[in-house]
Design goal:
The structure is a single chain. It contains seven helices and 23 strands. With 361 residues, it is α+β, with helices and mostly antiparallel strands.
Length: 361
């Protein structure tokens, strides 16, 4: 019980995050006030709306592949009409209505889409889906380099002659050439540099004492060197940025889903990737542009640890008489300077302990 209590105490923030952010959608951008929760753990059960699309030639080929990643997107779609249910139906029906009389064939797909109202499940977790932008020609693959593990995290760069380096040691693996055509003419053709690598770097793992690198390619659309395995070997989650919704609540629901998928697939926090990792696209754009990615990963870590506690027989309940706090820990109002007051009850069998909190605004 002591370990659990200490974890709870360490993961209730001393001060609530209240920040104005910019939300980025292709129809519109808008300003939004982020208000974090009473705790990094979301006090509600995980549930799914099953809406599995039939196997077809458009967006669910039915191909089974092993899961290596969980990929986080945002929809880039701020329309108040385009909810998680809307985008789930778009996958299910393989088309969507942009405006009256304007029906667009929709060939993308993803396993899950999330908003304030729920989580929709469209493609089985172990099947290929078209969400990451890296195609389906190449699977997650590791290639042995000639660089021996030095006990450090592998930092990937590119040498002056175009070979990958790991911790400044040149490998035997060439980075993909920067090459682009336009209207049938070559407009770029050069040796890549480290600055061409996507923000989340290149897959690098130690196997049998040697560093290994993953399959990579140059994405001319986004002008970045990116990783393969997004469509074939990752579970894709679209997180909605719908105008008028609680964006932070959607992030927390997404984090709870990510933790569940990591647990179910024996993956780690290092296997949570942005869409950007697989294509160079600026996605999930709102999280990225507002600097919330590391915070999002913290939410995932807390949800993952709480899952383990629950598996070991613990249960958790948030209790409060403060009208500014919802049952799940979401903060509804931030007026005034009075600290938020609530309790978290931790129980296992007949053992029970209550922790009191006063969190400043």
């Amino acid at each position: 019980m002591k370990e659990v209590i200490n974890f709870i105490k360490n993961n209730v923030v001393d001060k609530i995050i209240i920040r104005d952010i910019r939300v980025y959608g292709w129809q519109l951008e808008y300003d939004h006030k982020i208000v974090s929760s009473a705790a990094k753990y979301l006090f509600e059960d995980l549930s799914f709306n099953e809406n599995i699309v039939e196997v077809n030639d458009d967006n669910r080929p039915g191909i089974v592949k092993p899961n290596r990643y969980v990929t986080v997107h945002d929809t880039g779609d701020a329309s108040h009409l385009h909810t998680a249910k809307f985008w789930s139906e778009a996958v299910y029906n393989r088309s969507w209505e942009q405006s009256p009389g304007d029906v667009v064939k929709y060939l993308c797909s993803y396993q899950y889409v999330v908003d304030n109202e729920g989580i929709y499940h469209n493609v089985p977790d172990n099947e290929v889906a078209y969400h990451a932008g890296d195609g389906t020609k190449f699977d997650y693959t590791l290639y042995k380099t000639n660089v021996i593990d030095d006990g450090k995290k592998g930092i990937v760069s590119i040498s002056s002659d175009g070979y990958y380096e790991i911790n400044n040691q040149v490998t035997n693996i060439k980075a993909p050439r920067v090459y682009q055509e336009k209207n049938g003419e070559v407009i770029v053709d050069r040796i890549p540099t480290t600055s061409d690598i996507n923000d989340q770097s290149i897959l690098c793992k130690v196997v049998d004492g040697y560093y290994h690198l993953g399959e990579t390619y140059y994405s001319p659309g986004y002008k970045k060197i990116a990783n393969r395995g997004g469509n074939n070997n990752s579970i894709g989650i679209e997180s909605c940025i719908t105008y008028g919704t609680d964006i932070y609540y959607t992030w927390q629901k997404t984090a709870k889903l990510v933790a569940y998928l990591l647990d179910e697939n024996n993956l780690t926090i290092d296997d949570v990737k942005q869409h950007h990792y697989f294509s160079g696209k600026n996605c999930p754009q709102t999280i990225r542009m507002n600097g919330f990615w590391d915070h999002f990963l913290e939410l995932v870590k807390v949800e993952l640890q709480m899952r383990l506690f629950i598996k070991n027989g613990y249960s958790f309940k948030l209790m409060t008489n403060d009208s500014r706090i919802s049952f799940n820990g979401r903060i509804k109002l931030t007026e005034g300077n009075k600290p938020l007051s609530f309790m978290i009850e931790v129980s296992k069998g007949e053992e029970k302990e209550t922790i009191e909190f006063n969190v400043s605004l």
